[in-house]
Amino acid sequence: MTTVPSEIRPFRAADLGTLALLAWMARNEEGAGRTPCLLACSLGDGPGGPEGASAAVARLLDEMRLPVGGDPVDGTTRPSLKVSMLVVAGQIVLQMPNVTTQVTPPAEWLEAVGNLGYTYFMFTTRVCPTTGPRRPVAGPELAAFAGAPETTNAAAHVYLPARSLRA
Fold it and tell me: How many helices (H) and strands (E) does the chain have?
């Protein structure tokens, strides 16, 4: 009997399913200010279901050399970072290899990013709960998901610089 070695499946954007971007303000470590945060997560509705979507996120993070569960990567000093964020016309456009997604964040978030020049970005392998097709949870349920150790420990963490279009 011959066994076929298992291969690492190449990343396919469709395997992610719907990718949600969630922007909010969090109290910073000093407690005197607030930090703009951005969480990317799959809704688990790709062809492989939640497990396949989680595995696809892990493959993408590995491809981008972003460690899951480790210390934050300082993207403000790493120009070769394979994830970028463009802030234009009140929108966030997040770009990664083979994946582009966008969201309209709150005005307070945009102002804070404009002042700081970056966001605290997390991309979690944990699938976001939903309230229906292509609709992530909201309110207290979303806050509980975003702040849960199961979410943050399963995420890559990045200080992600904000870029804008130059005139």
Answer: 4, 10
Question: pTM for the complete prediction?
Answer: 0.86
Coil, strand or helix: which one is 22?
A: strand
99: CB partners within 8 A, 6+ apart? 13, 16, 19, 60
Q: Which of 154, 143, 150 is nearest to 55 (CA)?
A: 154
Contacts of 101 (CB under 8 A, 6+ apart): 19, 21, 40, 93, 94
Question: What DSSP designation does 55 have?
Answer: H
Beta partners for 23? Answer: 38
> Token pair for residue 150?
């199961």
Backbone dihedral region for residue 104 (phi beyond 0: left; psi -120 to 50: alpha; all else: beta):
beta
Q: What does the angle CA 95 – CA 44 – CA 160 come to, to the nearest 5 degrees?
A: 25
Give the gyration radius of the chain's Cα atoms.
16
Among 21-35, 72-86, 109-123, 141-155, which stretch is predicted with the lowest mean pLDDT? 21-35
Between strands 84-88 and 155-163, the pairing is parallel
pLDDT in tens, 119-141: 999 999 999 887 666 677 777 88
Q: Which amino acid, one-letter code, is at 83?
A: V
